[in-house]
Amino acid sequence: xxxxxxxxxxxxxxxxxxxxxxxxxxxxxxxxxxxxxxxxxxxxxxxxxxxxxxxxxxxxxxxxxxxxxxxxxxxxxxxxxxxxxxxxxxxxxxxxxxxxxxxxxxxxxxxxxxxxxxxxxxxxxxxxxxxxxxxxxxxxxxxxxxxxxxxxxxxxxxxxxxxxxxxxxxxxxxxxxxxxxxxxxxxxxxxxxxxxxxxxxxxxxxxxxxxxxxxxxxxxxxxxxxxxxxxxxxxxxxxxxxxxxxxxxxxxxxxxxxxxxxxxxxxxxxxxxxxxxxxxxxxxxxxxxxxxxxxxxxxxxxxxxxxxxxxxxxxxxxxxxxxxxxxxxxxxxxxxxxxxxxxxxxxxxxxxxxxxxxxxxxxxxxx
Amino acid sequence: xxxxxxxxxxxxxxxxxxxxxxxxxxxxxxxxxxxxxxxxxxxxxxxxxxxxxxxxxxxxxxxxxxxxxxxxxxxxxxxxxxxxxxxxxxxxxxxxxxxxxxxxxxxxxxxxxxxxxxxxxxxxxxxxxxxxxxxxxxxxxxxxxxxxxxxxxxxxxxxxxxxxxxxxxxxxxxxxxxxxxxxxxxxxxxxxxxxxxxxxxxxxxxxxxxxxxxxxxxxxxxxxxxxxxxxxxxxxxxxxxxxxxxxxxxxxxxxxxxxxxxxxxxxxxxxxxxxxxxxxxxxxxxxxxxxxxxxxxxxxxxxxxxxxxxxxxxxxxxxxxxxxxxxxxxxxxxxxxxxxxxxxxxxxxxxxxxxxxxxxxxxxxxx
Amino acid sequence: xxxxxxxxxxxxxxxxxxxxxxxxxxxxxxxxxxxxxxxxxxxxxxxxxxxxxxxxxxxxxxxxxxxxxxxxxxxxxxxxxxxxxxxxxxxxxxxxxxxxxxxxxxxxxxxxxxxxxxxxxxxxxxxxxxxxxxxxxxxxxxxxxxxxxxxxxxxxxxxxxxxxxxxxxxxxxxxxxxxxxxxxxxxxxxxxxxxxxxxxxxxxxxxxxxxxxxxxxxxxxxxxxxxxxxxxxxxxxxxxxxxxxxxxxxxxxxxxxxxxxxxxxxxxxxxxxxxxxxxxxxxxxxxxxxxxxxxxxxxxxxxxxxxxxxxxxxxxxxxxxxxxxxxxxxxxxxxxxxxxxxxxxxxxxxxxxxxxxxxxxxxxxxx
Amino acid sequence: xxxxxxxxxxxxxxxxxxxxxxxxxxxxxxxxxxxxxxxxxxxxxxxxxxxxxxxxxxxxxxxxxxxxxxxxxxxxxxxxxxxxxxxxxxxxxxxxxxxxxxxxxxxxxxxxxxxxxxxxxxxxxxxxxxxxxxxxxxxxxxxxxxxxxxxxxxxxxxxxxxxxxxxxxxxxxxxxxxxxxxxxxxxxxxxxxxxxxxxxxxxxxxxxxxxxxxxxxxxxxxxxxxxxxxxxxxxxxxxxxxxxxxxxxxxxxxxxxxxxxxxxxxxxxxxxxxxxxxxxxxxxxxxxxxxxxxxxxxxxxxxxxxxxxxxxxxxxxxxxxxxxxxxxxxxxxxxxxxxxxxxxxxxxxxxxxxxxxxxxxxxxxxx
Lengths: 367, 367, 367, 367
Prior knowledge:
Four copies of one chain form a homotetramer. By secondary structure, chain A is α+β, with helices and mostly antiparallel strands. Chain A has a single domain (5-351), classed as Chorismate synthase AroC (Chorismate synthase, AroC fold). Helix content of chain A is 26%, strand content 21%. Chain A is built from eight helices and 19 strands. In chain A, the strands form six sheets. Chain A has a five-stranded antiparallel sheet. In chain A, strands 10-9-11-17-12 form a five-stranded antiparallel sheet. A three-stranded antiparallel sheet of chain A has the order 8-18-19, with no helix packed on it. In chain A, α1 (38-48) packs antiparallel against α8 and α3 (131-149) crosses α8 (325-350). The longest helix of chain A is centred in the C-terminal third of the chain and has 26 residues, at 325-350. Chain A starts with a strand and ends in a 17-residue tail after the last helix. Chains in contact: A-B, A-C, A-D, B-C, B-D, C-D. The interface between A and B is large, with 117 and 111 residues. β12 (240-245) of chain C pairs antiparallel with β12 of chain D, so a sheet runs across the interface.
């Protein structure tokens, strides 16, 4: 299958490069009757916008989303929804020099070899810019999940380089440009980033996402297990090199007696599983983390090749993010929303006789 | 979509529960002309079989696979291949007691709430038993990849609980029942496992898989990026809680200047990316690791509920694996093979060895 | 996508050739809780079996279907259902002569050129034999549709060569080997077929299928319109060369004032549309017809080629059907059932807030 | 699956209603390197435009298509192509009266019951207007098929009401507003249409499409047989009630000795099969016909209901086509192109022009 679509009953198909005319997409499968406006979608786009802090890309983008179809008198009609975001501030000339060079760590080399041609301006389709439409599409899913099912999705930066969040205050997340949940470390973060920018280097990050009040029963074993689909969805975001659910890689050193989440009439006693068991949601919070690699667009020179197989030194002078992880937060929420939306509809279709039970209610006989 | 299929051009659909009549599947899309026999597939099934060491499940399974279609005079015909493995040794009475109880850490609770019904014998469809067919299907992919493209896929146990492999000797992997690559730690592993079995507990594990000689250009951005599909594929294996590519979660603390793999006329200078860049294979080894949780089938009692929402104590007396990670090795190889096969065909088509003949030319032999 | 699967939420994947070991398939997505037995599926398989009348193929096939998974204590569990039918009576020696010859009108030529190899025994995967599994899978869908939704699906032979049914008596359909609904023409049919067999020739046929009590609202515009999916599904049956819905090709000469089905508080005044409007079911009977070509396996010699591009005379001596249309009836019902089942689940998933309204009830506000 | 996408390797997803802001879509999977411009796509859009003759809809539409991504320096990049057509001349007030009425023969009734809501302006998503984007997308496929493979696709009006084309002159097709291939009957057509418009009625039509120089081997048995996919694709066009391949419904009365296309060293002796055998292309012309129903938007009053289940008389006063068949010609060509493109890539892969390079060989120019 051509790879620019995701989802079965709730399907998102996108197009657009960093320096093309526009980004856009088709969101297909949103049930009818949901109230939705461009402002609803603009909220998360603004959270994603570069220029939010002095450390993120200085590229000024408008990122104004338009809804072109599928909404009538303020409500979804059940037909496909067209989304469009025009590209604005592109500064093509920044990229002219790399026309014939493969920047290390970018998709230049692989796109060239896969397609035999590449749009060398700013990363083309490989650029993180295409995620703007994912965020808009995710906005539709987020609203449906919240309004119809009370499901909330929140992400935050849990670690930046060596600096880990030790406490999680969601209020704090929304009031600093890093989406960091631990107020006590904000100054350290600031200093670290400033030094990084001076060095002309970049750093990796870890993002944590939580979906709460999810119904029991989402996920389609064995191959479309919910965790497998979440992994797919999150790993499809640029720069992601790892995905984990619940305790993730910590389980390697856990004993079975430690790891298992016991059941009592009051509820589960723990959530090592991260809300997914045997590939199906348990009703507990779904907790996932991703690892984002440091961007390769740094001002420290590096070795590369041109298309004639000759060595060249690479220095990026364009605008870049010293830490792409910061911008990923709204994208991670959007992808989680898109995946949960798809599975919600699939469960409603696949098991119509079963009532959806929200949250973790062990032992309740829902028939 | 119903979740028991994976892949687009190379599609595997499976059925079967641990205590049903048989396991089976349809492997669709293997190009014609590949020499394949039941013995080819039996090799990996035998590697997966319980009873291999005194620490793995004592359940004796035959696991003899039959090829029911799609192969003629020893070669694939390009039509769908049917696979069948009859279940043998099931000991149903072991599970009678848990008919009305949700074993913590298993799919009992979630399957009950998703479907409103569950096959309580031994885990039903949630059991790792269903992976036997994946291994057989993966065998077809492995052979095609190896024979036609020289691609090799190998996995090993890189960590069991606190014991990490410090060196990687692939010869060693095949000569111990743990698939462990570091000979110097085999005694330690043995002791650790013996203690675990006495305690009646279990432990997690980490498995590493490497695919070498992969062509450049596999992967379909943006959503079907190769790493996203590998993550999906590996996370769909029972007990997996995390997937990472290349340096994985280590990238969180890496600087851009460290992480990027520079290009020279002789080749890449490193492989932090793990063989995938911007979602497309680079030609370098694809390196991935997964985290497997410790099994919840242990003899240490735990709290659980029955279907009347009453507290019960759970003790598993059936057969179990103190470390499921050990058995995952052939399954991991199989899933990697299935995913790479699918992407190879998506890049190359269903019948790449056949030249397109335009217009009606009867009788022309186009080979 | 590899082509041996059909459906999204209710997905059927099949394997098996006419002379292979067995036919089989995976039926994925049947909701849990449906009572189903092998006997339920055997009913339609027996209707399809050759040897039913002296005019149909004399090949004796057992066609005994086994359910290998997905059913527990007599009910579906919601997991994938494995089906198996062993091949029995094959008489391979009948086909030895055609190993290197392309029989005109068969898939020999096209399979050879598509795959570069072919299983020459009896048509291989192109043989109508593979439809046995479709009939078994369709049996599951038929039962669910009938039991849970009261939907009934019936097909009959509406025309054989020049002999058209002028009246439709469904009782009559089940009591003659032709599935013909007009008792007054049965003798004529008999005579016609006897002459045909003497001539060693074959004839085409038209089959009509009706689904009644279908809910309003099935179908997913614009590409998965219900009629488009029905057309796909029916055209995928061997020998089908045309599909029409409602008045079908008669609409070419109809005026708008004649064709449109007017709405009154008592119901629609007609059903020229055949139960589908703008690609969505109206609640009225869904009426479709297919045209089946005459089989090319006849004893009258014909010109063909061998693989060395030399002219040869073709005479089929094996067993064959002078009219394949007769055997298609259960297959047509099965494919209609599979498609409606898929769309029923998709509607339940896609529009969960809308209650399914069965039958044609114009004007009823179902919110 | 949400129904607004079609295709696997060449996938088209669309959005847009007749009175929405714009129509658009994503065309995913076109191989890189194809030269394509907006003018290329505009050609077929202009052929489809209303106002071409005095008999077609008087609605003036601009139908100017924009390419928003996926094309760089005049060539496709292999990434998804975004298309946009802004809606212009809508005259919403024409439809105000039907806000609460179900027009017979239209999707009003079915959309209302499926979604619980409908965009009542001009047919909404059910309107033929959405096919404009299909034509644009089909233009990309047509160019690729023609340029890379020499495949040509042409459609014409073969019958309008009682008037059948007796001869087929493709030059004639392009020089009259009816796309009719028989010059001797043009006057009769003209007279017939004039009378129809006076009566305020409409008529059905038959359209024939031919694809020539198609390679042998396209189609994925058993469910994605090429003819089944063509049937799906063509039946998804508004107003289509029947699809036939080759001799279509004539085969019902054909003997096997007549129907089969014999093979000689010089070629096939006939083409009753219409270019598809056992679901795979033979290399001969693919010939298909569709039946289009007469539009229900006529000025002759008809009975209908409003949403309160009360009888009302319906008269359409807006602009309409007395014969929609005339406008379908470019749409039929587009859908045939989209389907053949998809199957060509499935047989050949996403990037057939690129050689697979194994292992990591930086800088090697593999073209």
